[in-house]
Structure formats: structure tokens, C-alpha cells
Amino acid sequence: MTATKSFSTSDDRAIRDVLLQFEMAWNNRDVRTLTAAFVANGIYINVKDEVAEGHSAILGQFARLLASDGEGSYATFSIDRVWASLMPNAALMRGRVQIRVMAEEAVRSRQLRLLLALQQASGGLWQVALLHETLPPLPGHGANDRSQS
């Protein structure tokens, strides 16, 4: 297995800030900022394996998603791991999002796993090329996933 190179501290911080920007945009219900985090031909694959490619399709997916969750939803994003570049100006990030939705005096909650492929533009800005959401493994099915990273 080939070793990966390390990121500079500023690159590592900028990569992690992408998820922080997602969290703030989600909680502010700002689909334009969510969409702007993607490269122009970026791909978003939701938990239902519906694929949106390009800004217009991604904006539509996020608009529908935020509308279906209602006004009382908020999200907390976390990062499990960032892999250093296997090629110049590219990175992988694995994380999670916990979404809580207020519904008729009750709180529903769901957790999704995230895999993001990021690329760095010539100006140094890190953007999402691919975001894939999946359900977490069932108990007893892949629960030791972290030890294999």
C-alpha cells in the first residue's frame, strides 16, 4: 500500500472547514451556500442513491431535502478522518451528520455517514467533487469499521 502525503496545516483546516460550512448552511436553510461548496460538475448522492450532478441539480436536491425536513431541523456534522492526497490537490473525508427534526412536539433524529471527495482549485479553495450519504451499519454489521481505517 502506498503511503499518502501529509497536508499542510492550512490545507487541513480548509478541508475541515468545508464540513463546518455545510453545517452552518444547513442550519440556516441556505441551499445556495450548500450548493456553492461543490465544484461546477460536482455529484451529490443521497441516502436513497438518487444522483444529482451539477449545481442546478444539487440545488434542487438540497431544496427538496430541506423542505421535507421542515423548519425545525438542524444538523451537526462531524469528521471521522481526512486522508491526505493520493494525487495533487485532492482529498477524501469520512464523516457523519446527525439531523434532528422537530415534528409535532416530538424530535426525530437520524444519522448518516458521509464520504466526500474534495479538490483544490488553483486559487487554493477546497470544494466538494463528490458527496455520498449512506446509512450507518446495523449493530453487529461493520461496527468495527473505525479500527480498519
Structure, described:
This protein has a single domain, classed as Nuclear Transport Factor 2, Chain: A, CATH 3.10.450.50. It has helices spanning 9-27, 31-36, 55-69, and strands at residues 38-45, 51-53, 74-83, 90-103, 106-120, 126-134. The relative contact order is 0.18. Helix content is 27%, strand content 40%. The chain starts with 8 loop residues before the first helix and ends in a 15-residue tail after the last strand. A hairpin with a 5-residue loop joins strand 1 (38-45) and strand 2 (51-53). The longest helix has 19 residues, at 9-27. By secondary structure, the protein is α+β, with helices and mostly antiparallel strands.
Quick summary:
The protein is of the alpha+beta class and 149 residues long.
